[in-house]
Amino acid sequence: MTKLFSNLWKLPTLGVFLTGTAFAEPPPAPKGFMWVVNEDFTDEFNGDALNSEKWYDHHPRWRGRPPARFMPENVSVKDGMLQLTNGTLDESISSRHGEFTLGGAAVVSKKTEAYFGYYECRLRASSISMSSTFWMSNSGQHYPGVGRISQELDIQETVGGSKRNEKFARYMNSNTHVWHGGDSDHIGNKAELPTKSDEAFYVYGCWWEDASKCHFYLNNEHVGTVEFDTTLTEEPFRHPMHINMVTETYDWETPPTPEEINDPSRNTTYIDWVRAYVLVPTDGSLADWQLKKLKEQPREWKSANGKSSTKAKLVKAKHGYAYLRKKGGKEIRVPVKLLCKEDRELLEKVMASN
Question: pTM of the predicted model, to two decimals?
Answer without folding.
Answer: 0.85
